[in-house]
């Protein structure tokens, strides 16, 4: 920040190349998107003294002037992170280099804060001294465990996003399905997001976005299947919706048609097993509860 007397943010190396709207949301999370866009449109936000747009790309050392109320307003207190939550994630680190941190995300923990969740992976890790500027490179459902890639700088994030756009990121999941899948199959069914009983749900719809998933059975046992799932696209709940399309919903996934199983140790038996991009390859060990359930069937 430039000075306590002037409502100006100075862009640092961690925000170089970032959109103006995203930069300001990071600085003042309490400002709504609608309010922020209105301020920009009315010229109350300026970059190096000039009018700008929400999509304006910032450069290191740019001076972003905002209304005094926005600059001097007290920010929300940081969420209180229990030491055991931090320790749990640090123990889940799979790999780390100058650009990326990869963890084996526990099932039941969201990747970021949201409805019903005060904190997520990113909020917890950003309170660690070494990870203040950590960025989510992609997402996993709260019920899904496994490989989660986080970028340690903005350029690494942009590189990963470019790989995603080019479909140059290979992901393989392991799932336990309720139903028999005895042959390799590819599902190509468009998916649209809908709210069903207030819950975000992916539904098969001609008006939806193109979605493709490869399913490869590893084993079949007592009317259940253990499969590898390789999504070609990355739609919300894609694997879960496509498994349901095959009449083989993931065990525990009541939202997509699976039987209610109060005896289970986790909500949904889906695990992000491997992820590869460029010269990187990461593997998250399959949770013990998968093998225990499989052997009990």
Describe this protein's structure:
The protein is of the alpha+beta class. It has three domains: 8-72, Structural Genomics Hypothetical 15.5 Kd Protein In mrcA-pckA Intergenic Region, Chain A (Roll); 83-154, Pseudouridine synthase; 167-296, Pseudouridine synthase (2-Layer Sandwich), CATH 3.30.2350. Helices cover 22% and strands 28% of the residues. It has eight helices and 15 strands. The chain has helices spanning 20-27, 33-41, 68-72, 83-91, 121-125, 154-165, 238-245, 288-296, and strands at residues 8-10, 46-47, 63-65, 93-96, 100-105, 135-136, 145-151, 169-178, 185-188, 191-196, 199-204, 212-221, 224-231, 270-277, 280-283. The strands form three sheets. Strands 4, 5, 6, 7, 8, 9, 12, 13, 14 and 15 form a ten-stranded mixed β-sheet that branches. A three-stranded antiparallel β-sheet has the order 1-3-2, with no helix packed on it. Strands 10-11 form a two-stranded antiparallel sheet. It is elongated. The mean pLDDT is 92.
């Amino acid at each position: 920040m430039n000075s306590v007397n002037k409502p100006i943010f100075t862009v640092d190396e961690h925000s170089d190349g970032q959109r103006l709207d995203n930069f300001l949301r990071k600085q003042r999370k309490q400002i709504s998107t609608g309010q922020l866009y209105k301020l920009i449109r009315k010229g109350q936000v300026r970059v190096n003294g000039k009018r700008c747009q929400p999509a304006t790309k910032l450069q290191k050392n740019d001076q972003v002037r905002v209304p005094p109320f926005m600059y001097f307003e007290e920010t929300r207190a940081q969420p209180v992170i229990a030491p055991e939550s931090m320790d749990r994630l640090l123990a889940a680190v799979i790999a780390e280099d100058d650009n990326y941190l990869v963890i084996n995300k526990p099932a039941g923990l969201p990747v970021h804060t949201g409805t019903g969740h005060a904190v997520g992976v990113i909020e917890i890790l950003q309170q660690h001294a070494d990870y203040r500027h950590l960025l989510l490179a992609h997402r996993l459902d709260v019920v899904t465990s496994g490989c989660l890639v986080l970028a340690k700088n903005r350029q690494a994030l942009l590189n990963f996003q470019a790989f995603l756009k080019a479909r140059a990121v290979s992901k393989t999941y392991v799932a336990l399905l309720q139903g028999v899948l005895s042959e390799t199959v590819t599902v190509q069914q468009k998916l649209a997001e809908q709210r069903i009983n207030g819950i975000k749900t992916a539904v098969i719809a001609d008006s939806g976005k193109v979605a493709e998933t490869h399913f490869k059975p590893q084993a079949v046992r007592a009317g259940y299947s253990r499969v590898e799932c390789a999504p070609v696209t990355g739609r919300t709940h894609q694997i879960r919706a496509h498994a349901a399309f095959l009449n083989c919903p993931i065990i525990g996934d009541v939202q997509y048609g699976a039987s209610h199983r109060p005896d289970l140790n986790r909500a949904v038996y889906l695990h992000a097993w491997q992820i590869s991009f460029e010269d990187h390859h990461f593997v998250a060990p399959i949770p013990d509860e998968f093998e225990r359930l499989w052997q009990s069937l």
